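Appendix B, Record 12. Input sequence as logged:
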Amino acid sequence: MIVGSQAPLFTADAFFNGHKKKIDLQDYRGKWVFLFFYSSDFSFV
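Logged structural output:
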């Protein structure tokens, strides 16, 4: 992935305002989006 390039479209679960929410990247088409993935910090295992 290169900064400034388009990410592939996907749907994922996210936490927003303390609630779990389904996020669809297509809803943000044409807008700047910062994607952060680091599952180890948010794991309940």
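The two ends are 29 Å apart (CA to CA).
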